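Translate structure to sequence.
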């Protein structure tokens, strides 16, 4: 049996193909994918910058679908794409994201830009049947935001409502982080990005302060209590360290590049806490579903939906900055009636 799948065929080349349907291994179930989001890491692979993702490969890991077997058979589920051993000290202490044996769907295993994918049953999170699949598909980037903010809160000395916070990057993780901070009471959140279309989207959903470094004056030095870098480039790290105040918290989430340095002297002399925040735990995923379902993060009307057959064009549009959407979600199947 074959299925439709969007395949990363070569650098900057995506193809809609007929691919063999997956076969569940021990402990796995098959999930029929309803909707799946395009992540920044998918774009990283698209540019040929991720040696772990070797073409041909079905990308996609931000997904909602219907379990075809197992204890959740017939239910709508969110996929936690991070596959871990479940036995090491990190897994056993709730830090599955640090498992040294971790992998993920859409990394070495075929991902969610397809009619079906196979994934361990323990990685499924049931969601309410009345939760829109496109909202549920946002659970993975939302969990990343939940995890990053939780790490930052461990290093705070005053309520978030008193803090000035800069979020660098207006993609889905950056926007969701800003919305989460506002939900938690932070009244002074600025989102910075070079994509003016995405900044307009931020303003439309209630982020009043936006900044475009291509047009606006640089951020004042020592101005922000927190800086969250959802881009992760040498340039954005420099911006973050310039803008962070003494005693502030710099949370590094983005993975655009590994090269470059930042002001280590300032970090030391001014006791800036620099925190790396990687992905999420299963608990973060469950919390993310609750936030999304409850409406805590708003109407989520800033996503853009396209058909799987339009996936190659969606990658190209994201690459060229032609969309105002912080997230493009591919529709793969309809919810059964």
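Result:
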């Amino acid at each position: 049996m074959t299925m439709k799948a969007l395949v990363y065929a070569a650098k900057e080349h995506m193809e809609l193909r007929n691919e063999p349907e997956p076969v569940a291994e021990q402990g796995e179930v098959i999930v029929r994918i309803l909707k799946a989001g395009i992540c920044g890491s998918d774009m990283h692979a698209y540019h040929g910058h991720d040696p772990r993702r070797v073409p041909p490969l079905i990308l996609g890991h931000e997904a909602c679908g219907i379990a075809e077997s197992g204890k959740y058979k017939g239910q709508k589920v969110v996929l936690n794409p991070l596959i871990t051993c479940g036995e090491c000290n990190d897994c056993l202490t709730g830090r599955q994201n640090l498992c040294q044996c971790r992998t993920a769907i859409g990394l070495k295993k075929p991902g969610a830009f397809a009619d079906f994918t196979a994934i361990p049953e323990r990685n499924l999170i049931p969601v309410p049947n009345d939760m829109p699949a496109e909202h549920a598909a946002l659970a993975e980037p939302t969990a990343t935001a939940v995890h990053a903010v939780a790490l930052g809160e461990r290093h705070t000395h005053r309520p978030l409502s008193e803090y000035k916070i800069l979020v660098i990057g207006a993609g889905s993780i950056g926007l969701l982080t800003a919305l989460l901070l506002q939900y938690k009471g932070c009244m002074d959140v600025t989102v910075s990005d070079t994509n003016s279309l995405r900044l307009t989207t931020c303003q439309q959903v209630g982020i009043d302060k936006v900044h475009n470094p291509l047009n606006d004056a640089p951020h004042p030095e020592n101005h922000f209590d927190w800086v969250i870098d959802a881009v992760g480039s040498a340039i954005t790290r420099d911006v973050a360290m310039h803008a962070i105040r003494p005693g502030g918290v710099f949370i590094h989430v983005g993975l655009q590049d590994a090269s470059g340095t930042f002001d280590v002297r300032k970090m030391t002399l001014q006791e800036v806490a620099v925190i790396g925040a990687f992905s999420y735990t299963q608990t973060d995923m469950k919390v993310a579903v609750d936030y999304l379902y409850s409406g805590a993060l708003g109407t989520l009307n800033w996503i853009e939906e396209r058909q799987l057959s339009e996936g190659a064009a969606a990658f190209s549009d994201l690459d060229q900055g032609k969309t105002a959407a912080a997230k493009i979600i591919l529709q793969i199947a309809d919810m059964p009636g």
